[in-house]
Design goal:
Elements: H1 2-23, H2 33-56, H3 61-86, H4 90-112, H5 117-142
């Protein structure tokens, strides 16, 4: 008899838990405005990238390559800045700075492809010098 009562009590408890779970779903991510804002910002970055990329399709040769590098770089910097905004920290601030240096270097290097010979070599050398300076500034941030 005790076993029967115990089993009935357990079954009733389980049924109540299931009913409660069905009537009270867990809070959705959209309920949290910070998460919704983060997702909206991330979606905007993605949409901006697609629009910038589409604008590059009309271009030709190296101008198109430069445009694509700028679009990718803009997206990379925007994502790093979004992370910094979401979770401010020294590490995320460095990631933003690193992204800016990397993008500046890749765009400058791509622009150098328009030139020939010594002018191109000088252009690449200048881009590398600016990248080195940027990396040194980032190292100084770590201290």
């Amino acid at each position: 008899m005790k076993k029967l009562l115990l089993m009935c009590t357990a079954a009733t408890c389980l049924a109540m838990v299931q009913v409660h779970a069905q009537t009270n779903p867990p809070p959705s991510a959209a309920a949290d405005p910070a998460i919704a804002e983060f997702k909206a910002a991330r979606d905007k970055i993605s949409a901006d990238y697609k629009a910038d990329k589409a604008a590059c399709d009309a271009m030709k040769d190296n101008a198109k390559d430069v445009c694509m590098e700028e679009a990718k770089g803009k997206e990379k910097i925007a994502k790093a800045e979004l992370d910094q905004k979401q979770k401010p920290s020294d590490g995320n601030a460095r990631k933003v700075a690193e992204a800016k240096v990397e993008v500046a270097y890749s765009v400058a290097k791509e622009k150098c492809d328009d030139q020939k010979g010594e002018a191109k070599d000088a252009c690449v050398k200048q881009a590398k010098a600016e990248e080195s300076k940027g990396k040194a500034d980032i190292k100084a941030m770590k201290k």
